[in-house]
Amino acid sequence: MLGLLSAASKELEQELRELCTSGDDYANSSKPQIDWDDKEAREQLIDSRAHDARAVLAALDGRELDLVLNQAAELLARVTGQDLEETEDGRFRIARRVARDRVISTVDPQARHGHKTSARSFDGYKGHIAMDPDSEIVTATAVTPGNAGDATVVEELLTDILPPESSEPVATGTAADPEAPAASNEPAFEAFGDSAYGTGKVVDRLERAGVVNLMKVQSPHAPAGRFSKDNFIIDLEAATVTCPNDITAGLQMQKDGIRLARFGDACTACLLRSQCTASPSGRSINVGPYEAQLTQAREQQRDPGWKQRYRANRPKVERKQAHMMRRKHGGRRARVRGEERVGQDFAWLGAVQNLLRMANREVRSTFRG
Q1: Contact in structure between 7 and 72 (CB atoms under 8 Å)
Q2: Which SS3 state, helix, strand or coil, does residue 103 take?
Q3: CA 11, CA 21: separation in Å to the nearest integer?
Q4: Could you tell me which residues come within 8 angstroms of residue 32 by beta carbon, excluding any fewer than 6 positions away?
Q5: Which of 162, 43, 20, 38 is nearest to 93 (CA)?
Q6: What are the helix (H) ranges across the chain?
Q7: Is 127 helix (H, G, I), strand (E, B) or coil?
Q8: Residue 325: Cβ within 10 Å count
Q9: Dist. CA 108–CA 334, nearest whole Å
Q10: Distances (CA, A) of 210 to 16, 154, 207
Q11: Less CB within 10 Å around the terminal CB: N or C of the chain?
């Protein structure tokens, strides 16, 4: 609210303040002077703040606002909408839920909650890098909000080896040049990455671009050690799924290219039910649009040669990230606010690491002015 009032002109600010009834007139950014140990006092404050926000937003509805004031109004509307709910008696209280893509800071609205693991969380942004494994030079950096999937930046990180979507894979030679080597179907590049980047969409993109996919793909799993999807036979041509007890169910199209096989009543008397599902409605199997690509990728990564190449190259990028995280401010902790500025700062950090790498290798310029 204070940010919105600060962005308004003096005349509009006065008009909006007259609509507020919380009592302190939003004079400063300090905490309201209430008994914070009193539950009723806290609830009254939340309710009064919410009614103030609703009144102010209603007064601004339909008006032509400048960019800064419009952004402040949108932020106020989003924060109150995601964190508050209205009771039957018309009072507002903290919502008993967590909103999707929740704004966690009014100072930096682009920051988000993120999870390194299921037990380790953080607030802010995630930094991503691409690196040439031979020279150990950082070739690209990217920053995303903490809740964004890692695979969303693969296209940005691999711009130098991924042709545009409409282009065909580039051959190693052309018929117009007799001196050029013959065209080959062998991919020119390899792409390594951990399982957070190895989604079906990414695997498909790399294959269509002629890039060797060495992105690790997660294996299917089921809770409590029950049968995973790998224990089922999925026939994409016949659109069927066969369970470990040799029962077959058809795949039915759902949405977004997802198909679902439900075994339902067949699970009721199944002798393997305890090893398969605890659901009263029986076991079901989801099959995504990239199931074939993921299945093939899982088969490839079981090969000892694949494992050797992956283990020899992918850890290098982890080490490079560790080098970048040595600095608390600018590395592990952002020094600026906003995704764009954090991204610029992270790119500069990557450039510094490249300079350090070249200095350690005693790389010298051959340019003579």
Answers
A1: yes
A2: coil
A3: 18
A4: 22, 23, 24, 45
A5: 43
A6: 2-7, 10-17, 39-60, 67-83, 154-157, 200-208, 273-276, 291-300, 304-324, 339-360
A7: strand
A8: 14
A9: 11
A10: 59, 15, 5
A11: C
pLDDT per residue as tens digits for the range 326-337: 877 778 888 999
Bridge pairing between strands 240-242 and 233-235:
antiparallel
The residue assigned the tokens 């992956």 is 310
The type of residue at 302 is R
DSSP per position, 245-288: TS-EEEEEE-STT-EEEE-GGGGTT-TTHHHH---TT--EEEE-
Residue 293 in tokens: 């690509």
Mean pLDDT of 255-277: 92
Residues in the chain, total: 369
194: helix, coil or strand? coil
Reduce the DSSP state of residue 121 to 3 states and report it: strand
Identify whether the C-beta of residue 128 lies closer than 8 Å to the C-beta of residue 143: yes
Tens-place pLDDT, residues 102-118: 999 988 999 999 988 87
What pLDDT, on a 0 to 100 scale, did the predictor assign at position 158? 94
Name the one residue in this structure whose structure tokens are 């799993």: 221
Instruction: Tokens for 243, please give them.
Output: 């369970």
> How would you classify the pairing of strands 211-215 and 92-94?
unpaired
First to last CA, the chain: 58
DSSP three-state, residue 14: helix
User: What single-letter amino acid sits at 318?
Assistant: E
Q: Are 141 and 129 a contacting pair, CB within 8 Å?
A: yes
Q: Give the residue from 313, 357, 318 showing the smallest Cα distance to 133.
A: 313
pTM for the predicted model, two decimal places: 0.80
Q: What is the dihedral of CA 143, 145, 151, 156, to 10 degrees?
A: -30
Q: Which of 161, 182, 163, 179 is nearest to 171 (CA)?
A: 182
Phi-psi label, residue 234: left if phi above 0, alpha if psi -120 to 50, beta otherwise: beta
How far is 190 from 311, CA to CA, in rounded Å? 14
CA distance 145 to 203: 23
Q: Are strands 211-215 and 189-193 parallel, antiparallel or unpaired?
A: parallel
